[in-house]
Design a protein that fits this description.
- The complex is a heterodimer of chains A (491) and B (229).
- Chain A has 491 residues and is mainly alpha-helical.
- Chain A contains 21 helices and no strands.
- With 229 residues, chain B is of the alpha/beta class.
- Chain B has one domain: Rossmann fold (3-Layer(aba) Sandwich).
- Chain B has a six-stranded mixed β-sheet with strand order 2-3-1-4-5-6, with helices on both faces.
Chain lengths: 491, 229
Amino acid sequence: MLKSMSKETINTRSDDQFCRNACGFYGNKIWDGFCSKCYREVYQQAKQIQEAYDGKSNTSISESNSSLSSSTSSSHEKRRSNITMPNPIRQMVHRAGNLRSSSNSVISALLNDEQTIENESVSKYLEIIIADDARSDIKSQVKTFANNFHKKCSNKNIRLDTLIQEYGTFTDTIKKRIQTNSIYREENEDLIHRVRDYVESIIFSKDYVSVFDRIAIECEEQDLSIQNRISSLHWVTPTMLDVVLNEDISDHRETMYKAVNALIELDAKTTPQGKIHSIMECKSFIEQVLQSTSGTTINADCFLPALIYVVLKAKPPRLYSNIQFSSHFSQPNGEQLYYLANLDSAVRFIELLQAEHLGLSSNDFSLYMRGEPVLPSSCVSLFDYSFENNSNIQQLRNMCIQCDEIEYNSQKFHENMTDFNQHLVQSVTDINELFNDSYTRFAYFEQIPALIKLENIDKKDIDLLNPSIIENKYSQETLESKTALKQDIEQ
Amino acid sequence: MTSNNRQTSNNSNANRSPVNGQSARTCQFKMVLLGESAVGKSSLVLRFVRGQFHEYQESTIGAAFLTQTVSVDDTTVKLELWDTAGQERYHSLAPMYYRGAQAAIVVYDITNADTFSRAKVWVKELQRQAAPNIVIALAGNKADLAAKRQIEVVDAQTYADENGLIFMETSAKTAMNVNDIFMAIAKKLPKNQDSSSGRTGNNGPSITVDRPGNSRAAGSDGGCCAGTK
């Protein structure tokens, strides 16, 4: 639109004389129809990509390049100075051209990234392949799928299930291909793992975010609820879970921190294998701690509680989504699958955690959950040692509960008293009004109120019901006297 | 060669390439260990794994997950042994472990009658909840402590016969019957792919795809068969 306008208003020359980038300057055949500036932008980037790709810079090319650029830029300047009348439309067109060229550079930068990632991955994972045709076969297979998958990921309408299925099918076919195709006959048995890592690094360097976001959106509620659940269980101690762990020993504490960190890092890893690796790392640290604490073999009886404790301490972000992602997209071996199942179980245990699971009474559990300091969790072991007799602890707890009850009841009582007071005042005023009314109507009965001395009772009454007095005296007597007074008045 | 390929690819966790498996085909099975905490599950497995094939011992400290390879006839059977936490509080999590398992070994302590009744509960639960063709074995451990016996062999044998279980009294301490019970399970496992892959309708990763989703669904619906939670 702008371009055509500029053609009509500014220039009568045919379109192909303009720079292909629509920057508003004239193009030239020797620069592939670009103006000198755009030519430099486009082709130098291409050259840089090529150079990065080749991994070496050709000095002669860059020299000739710089001489070319210097000459073109000077001519560019000249042409620029030739424009005498600044035309707003031309400026707009110029700006649009700039935008386009910058978006070009973004795309080429992306291409550049992709290339480097592919190259790095190839050298990292596919080096061991002996036969060249096997390597190029894998490369082309993965590339085709990656492009396909990327398109699907960018399409918001394609659901997660489809992506999972596509990915699963692809990994299966490539596995089968390696097992059956004759070009892989010579290869090492480790190849399947290498290829798995290669596939993951290619696919998830591009599409991790869009895939993970789909999962995270689906699991947002569970993620939040497990996080809140973990937050509300911050008071759980190793002893409650039967974990043989002494956090007072600094070595153990540090290893425990490492395990916690490994679990937190789970969210930051962007490939399924990376996530599995985090879980396995966490597992090794836990084993290390347990080994040095108990010295016996580590079986599920001691591993699972420790893992639960670590999950509680780590409060890993988006834990549920991460487990989902790992189980949908990773191809774990038996051992990794076992520990993934353990992590899943730990999460489930935390979700379903009840008082008896921690050896607490349901009363204590709810007190802990409300954040009330029944017995500070850090002092539990202290109390266990100093009070050999359990009844002392029991007494203390009972007293705490009683104290709570008294406080609660007194508050209730206070509220009731205030209510009562208001009611009373209201009634007294009402009656007074009634009396006053009566006085005015039956003036000759005036001497009767004086006999009852209602005014006096009234004043005394109000004083007694002053809140400050009530606060100091919760005694039954006061209440009784008030009730009596009330009865008096009502009579 | 071809059959080998199919074998490994259909068993989810096949991590060895077929190219080196020239001689015999390899089957891989998941076996879960159930039982109260002090009945000696881990010692039983450790005796089995370390007593026979030292070179296959994969983990030096961890005994929660172990593998052991045995050969049955012309087939190499790789057993993946999944230990479960025996404490009462973790019972409700067991379905997450035995889901997809082709074999289970339920261990009790012959000197403790409670562990036997708990083992019966496990068996019932497995029959109802686990894969329909799961091979279940009942192991009466601590047979070396026969003097303190609370469960008679006959009773356990009758129970096992009624429920179609493999049964043996074992002793991790003296190694009595330890290899035998695992071998009996390995023999009973279906080696041809069609029947053994009851859990695997599809190939490889779909198992892991199914697992957490199902487990959650099952957990929230039925509260699992532990029934308490």
